[in-house]
Amino acid sequence: MKDRNEAAPRAVTMRDVAKAAGVSVSTVSHVVNDKKGARIGKDARDRVRQAIQDLGYRPNAMAKNLVKGGSRFLGLVADAIASTPFAGQIIHGAQDEAWRHGYVLLVANTEGNNDAEAEAIAMMLEHKVRGILYSTWYHREVAMPAGLAEADSVLVNCFSAHGRVPAVVPDEVDGGREATRMLLAEGHRRIGLVNTTTASPAHDGRLLGYRQALAEAGIAFDPDLVMDAHPDQEGGYESVGRLLAQRVTGVFCHNDRVAMGLYDGLREKGARVPEDIAVVGFDNQEVIAAHLRPPLSTVALPHYDLGRVGVRVLLGLDEPAADGRVTIACPPVRRASVSTPSSI
After folding, report:
1. What SMART domains does the record tag this protein with (predicted)?
2. How do residues 31-52 score in pLDDT, each as one tens digit?
3. What is the spatial distance between Cα 257 and Cα 262, in angstroms, rounded to a whole number?
4. Cys-Cys link to 30, which of 38, 41, 101, 279 (CB 3.0-4.6 A)?
5. All residues at 6 or more sequence positions from 342 whose CB lies less than 8 Å from its CB, including other chains
6. Domains of the chain with bracketed CATH
């Protein structure tokens, strides 16, 4: 009699067949489902069929139904979204939009592990997803995982160098403009920028937006008012001396953590926010921005909309621009850290 505690044998999957036959999961799927027009050589077909026989693979009934009726699954592969301060916002936006159109979202969080990433993509291909969203926790260029070439794909919060895969990304330039405009609207004219030391779309885009907003207001760009710092609380704290030496009345910080460090340094120097120096952050990291005293004016990264629009592009409901990208505006969030300067 079989021991009740004995584990049931694991079902053979398409991935097992693909590994045994030395082909991709997509090739196994085409052979199993006898897909018309699939360009698969006789030798590869024979290896797949032999592996199916040797391993005892039995196609899943659900998968067969999906082939006949069209998959109602979408995939989302993320490198670290679930463990970041913006936990779940991209996933939430993608899930809401997928559900709105009758799809279920399959989510894999790989923590940047390449093997886990390849396994996740293979699993989604095996489930015959309608397409895959590939997302990163900060906006950057990525090398495309090989498996994504086997499905319709959209990049979210990242982009590829060649631009052949659609990408949905935050409009960093727009965000830099909006942050600077908040200070300009209060009469500030000598505005500092504490940027990041990291080369990135955020570094370059927010600086460009800052310069554009100054130009719109008829203010000449002064490179002495721009300084790079580590994008954390310590970086903001260490920037205070340089900012005070430049007699700025307002500061745009690369992110909310930098702004938090700036608050600490200004307080030590006896300077008040916003009476002596107005401060604007970036990210709208609620645990920081809304709870500083005074609450921090900032610019929000549109994570929810990145996920939502990513699904719309994947389903063909929205079209990217000629460069393959869809840019999502970064909205300003005004709180109490900006005001008319006491003296200019």
Report:
1. HTH_LACI (SM00354)
2. 877 766 677 888 988 998 898 8
3. 9
4. 38
5. 275, 276
6. 14-67 (1.10.260.40), 71-170+304-328 (3.40.50.2300), 172-301 (3.40.50.2300)
